[in-house]
Amino acid sequence: MSVPRADTGNEDGPQHAPQEHTLNIGFLNPGQGSSAQVVVELTEEGPVALTMSTGRSPPLRPASPPTPRPCRHRGGLRKPAPTTVPAPDRNRLELQAVLLTAPGPSSARAAEGRGAGIGVRLGAEGVIPVPDPSRAPADPGAAVDERLLGELITEAQIVLPVDLPALANRCAAALGLNTALIYLVDLQQWLLVPLDESLQPLPVDASQAGWAYRTVSPRVTDDGDALVVWVPLVDGAERLGVLAVRTTTLDGTRMRRSRMLADLLAMVVTSKHAYSDWIAARPRTATMRLPAEILRAFLPPRTIGSKQCVSTAVLEPAYDVGGDAFDHAVVKHVLHTMILDGMGHDLASGLTTSVAMASARNARRSGADLPDLVGSVDRALAQWLPDHFCTGVVCRLDTDTGELHWINCGHPPPLLIRAMRVLDGALDSPPQPPIGLHLELAPDARQVHETTLEPGDRVLLYTNGVVDARDENGVEFGLDRFTDFIIRASAAEQRPPEALRLLIHAILDYQHNGPQDDATILLFEWHPQPPEGVLRSPPS
């Protein structure tokens, strides 16, 4: 069986060289029966290569979702040599194909019809039809009622949060899709919780929906009645959850519309979250204690970022945090980050860090430089909570130049990770009093330290609850284990938010009896974009 080729030119124009894109499709059998599951990965340019497996296969590993193999064969479907097929008890038949499309005049037609048969259920031959995209017939159902879609977008601004599931379905129908279901990740990022209260959550580490969340990439499965496109719900750099889009067929147009719908609903969910207790409470899996509720009211999103930098943080125990806190914000081309560890583990310690965060933001929004910002927090705590203090690190990164300035207030020093290793002592500094004690212990101005980052550098801030975590034998998690985990995640090309999610879960698992102290980690990465037209040199 051969795979048709796209046009390589037109009658009136010159011939164009074929252009190869990337698509991987896999069929996985998660159980012992004969059922199959479709897994699709699509690029922005549409589908071109596929990998299929039928028969019995081992169950999916939670932390290692299936990774289809890239295909280089240009002649159509290729069956591997018999020696590559495992024993019958784990029989897998793999077929591969690459579909070529041509740039130039025929590309526009190919973009509209590309992969019209991609994702349909297995036929008698056990093969997904892959028609010539440039010759695919127009789909009359692909037209969009712009008036209706505009009305739905307007309605999204005033819809009650509890009515979002119904609105999502109506938007999907207006885009030629079947249905759309919103899943939000819980506070600890273990589960994806549907807004539809009649459905059960899905595990982040052991589901195709979770794969889409972890990798921030779409995933397509076949549930027997329709295809389900799992699209990440992302607000800026913040992962909110996933959108499950059901569709009878899948092509480039429907994939783009699924992404557009996810982008729209991500903005709607974010705007409703600011005033909806229902949306705030829906992803919770436990009752939150009062100190944690107060503190979380002041916390920013877990992840913020731009093309030049990203900052992400995690905090545990999620529902019983005491005095730990983090903050990050972008002011023009400057990234501000801060981590705090309040004295104690009660309501007063939570109030201390909350006042510190509010004072720092007030100074930052008034244009204060780094010493004045920390000084304003010192004065606020001395005035309003004179018997309390907190340690912390406050940083300021110029994302244009990579210049990093920081003040360490009695806190563990930040760690600098460069080229997959920790630079020992790179961000160490002489000790300074904790925030709230500076005025009485050291009346002189705070000392500011500075260095220049290199592209790709990661800076790690943490509280002592991270390295002091102990197992059942009293052995500490330790700084070496902590940094080794981050370096391994970097080597595996994990995105910073996913690296911290895995790390904080590893710390929780290490403490079988639960955390003995608050544990907070903040990581920011500088990845400047080269000037337009300039290629960046590969890392050494």
UniProtKB/TrEMBL annotation:
Name used for this protein in its record: PPM-type phosphatase domain-containing protein
InterPro entries: Bact_Sigma-Reg, DUF6295, PPM-type-like_dom_sf, PPM-type_phosphatase-like_dom
Domain PPM-type phosphatase: 306-526
Biased composition (Pro residues): 59-69
Keyword Amino-acid biosynthesis among UniProt keywords: no
Protein keywords: Hydrolase
Residue segments, region Disordered: 1-38, 50-88
